[in-house]
Write a structure and sequence with these properties.
Elements (H helix, E strand, L loop, with lengths): L3 H10 L14 H13 L4 H20 L5 H13 L15 H12 L1
């Protein structure tokens, strides 16, 4: 028997040649929120649901994947670090001084 992730991977390899129709009975409040969310993102409800399901399955895949090797973890960390701006100005000496960090705690103990 195949897991959901295995089925998803097989469908992904087929590049969505297989189509699936699902009917959901949603309470009116959830339906209204779904329509509002789709509208806010400038897409149809169907498109929003496709993106949401894909993100959910991708996240599920990543969390249930095998433990990463040290090299893979290091590569992921480097990629994550590179995704941040290097133009952020450094903190001042005052901002990172011990006195500045603990001043609030010391004031509350008085």
């Amino acid at each position: 028997m195949l897991t959901i992730n295995e089925i998803y991977n097989q469908i992904k390899r087929l590049k969505w040649i297989v189509k699936m129709s699902i009917t959901l009975e949603l309470p009116p409040d959830i339906e209204a929120r779904l329509i509002a969310q789709a509208s806010a993102h400038g897409m149809s409800v169907e498109e929003l649901l496709k993106v949401t399901v894909d993100n959910l399955l991708t996240t599920s895949e990543q969390s249930s994947s095998a433990v990463l090797s040290p090299q893979e973890r290091a590569e992921k960390f480097v990629n994550w670090a590179r995704s941040h701006s290097i133009k952020t100005p450094p903190l001042s000496d005052e901002a990172i001084s011990r006195e500045s960090i603990y001043r609030e705690r010391e004031d509350s103990q008085r």
